[in-house]
Amino acid sequence: MVALPAEQRHSALHMSSFVVRRCIVLIGSVGEHSLEARDLGLRLPGVWTVQSGQWPSSIAIICRDPGYSTYRLQQFAFPQRADFRPRIVFLSIIGDGRQFKQHLGRSSIYRQRASSKHRWLLVNGTDRQHLAPYIASLRARAERESSSDLLLFLHPDLYLPDTFEEELLLSVQRLNHIDPNWAVAGFFGVPLDWSPEPSSPWSRPRVVGRGGDHYGRYTMGWSNVTAAQCVDETALLLRTRRGQFGGAGASPGFDAALPSASRIWLGGTGTVLEGLAQGRRSYVLGVDVLHQMKDILDSPSEDRHRFIDERRWQAMHKFSSAGSTIMHATAMSYMSEKYLRSKRVDLKRATISVEVLELLLSERADVNVANRNGATPVLMAAQENIAESLEVLLDATAFVRLRARHYGVRCEDRHGSR
Predict the structure, then answer these.
(1) Is the distance from CB of 363 to CB of 381 less than 8 angstroms?
(2) Strand residues in 108-207 grouped as ranges (E)
(3) Residue 361: its pLDDT value, please?
(4) Strand locations in 166-278, DSSP E?
(5) Which residue of 45, 222, 270, 283 has the fewest CB atoms within a 10 Å radius of its CB?
(6) Distance from CA of residue 78 to its chain's centroid?
(7) Are 137 and 82 in contact (CB under 8 A)?
(8) Do 100 and 92 touch, CB atoms closer than 8 A?
(9) What number is the average pLDDT over the span 164-176?
């Protein structure tokens, strides 16, 4: 920290906090802030306290609360609107309510709903109807009954931490800044440019996000916004036909004809593909959530490993069953015929940002030129595949200008990439 210019220290600390499990030692002045935990002005993820001790006044030690196990990157700086407070309708099919009471129903944003401008629409079940037509009609009902800006479909076994609303609104605001025409967003998903490759220590993750489940906590690129080829149906964020995203900006409709069952629905993938067919991208947002984990974390520590193993076995049993396999194959065949074989969607063309970057560099173009939304070719390529983008830049010995609005640091100088 002492070697960095003062204006870069907070951003560096944000990045460092992502991988720190215990303590951070600050050497040198931390500015005019007092060293009270919440007065540092650092807004680090998780709960941090200042560690008292007999060390020089120029040294401060802050430690993560061990009871708060969130490791993620903070949102980087970008132009924010103080009046950006979209209204959200939360929708969930809760069945008998057991999972809802253990997870989603314990979220503070639900428990404090009486004082919130957001609405909740909870339905008990589908009466064994197939999910595709049922959820399509449920979405239509929510849009008829509300003038909300966003709809958020949630599984009842998803827990939303106390920081959820703030993180979600920041992520949506950043997404609007990057891509005002986005189609749908989720909290877990497969990157748009991901493809199977030989396993190695440098293999890119197939599923990205900031949330956690019984397989661990997921990671993603520093931007906390990643273009996706599919998003998991545990959470689907949609733009409505009314409110500030209305008109042509509304998310693509759900396909009621998509093959589904009473408990299996691949609407996340279907909606992403429909968006790509319309020339619109969908995204994974880096928002902290817990899937099927709240009840386990609240159980005695000596029982947690057993509960996690049981939940993993249940998931494997569910998705390896003959009925599940046939239904997934049927739905994927339907979408392949509708979007890929028909050439409505060409995934190769949808993942060309790195190739475009190579072309621009070969023509000696300025890769720092921003569009009307402030996004540059470098930024858009890096958000999808930062490793390949850096490799391209290194090969070209390109010069890249870092801008505060995208990278969270005030640095207008040109830096060589080597």
Answers:
(1) no
(2) 119-123, 150-154, 158-159, 184-186, 188-191
(3) 73
(4) 184-186, 188-191, 208-209, 212-213, 216-217, 225-231, 235-239
(5) 222
(6) 17
(7) no
(8) yes
(9) 90
Tell me if residue 93 falls in helix, strand or coil.
Answer: strand
Give the Cα separation of 388 and 185 in Å (integer).
24
Of 390, 387, 384, 376, give the one whose Cα is nearest residue 177: 376
**Pair 149, 86: CB distance under 8 Å:** yes
Length of the chain in residues, anyone? 418
pLDDT for 6 beyond 50: yes
pLDDT at 69: 40
Contact call for residues 267 and 236 (beta carbons, < 8 A):
yes
Identity of residue 66: P
With contact defined as beta carbons under 8 Å apart, do 75 and 268 qualify?
Answer: no
* Residue 406 host element (H or E): helix 404-407
**Which residue do the tokens 């049993």 mark?**
317
Could you give the CA distance from residue 29 to residue 58 in angstroms, rounded to a whole number? Answer: 6
> What digits encode the pLDDT tens for the residues 103-138?
999 999 999 999 999 999 999 988 888 999 999 999
- pLDDT tens digit sequence for 38-69: 444 455 555 666 766 666 666 667 776 654 44
Q: Please write the tens of the pLDDT for every residue from 94-103.
A: 999 999 999 9
pLDDT band at 294 (very low <50, low <70, confident <90, very high): confident
Using only the alpha carbons of the chain, give its radius of gyration. 22
Lookup result for tokens 């569910």: 318
Tell me the C-alpha distance between 269 and 282, whole Å. Answer: 10
Distance CA 280, CA 180 (A): 10
In sequence order, what are the beta bridge partners of 91? 121, 153
The pair phi, psi for residue 147, each rounded to 5°, is -105, 30
Pairing between strand 235-239 and 184-186?
antiparallel
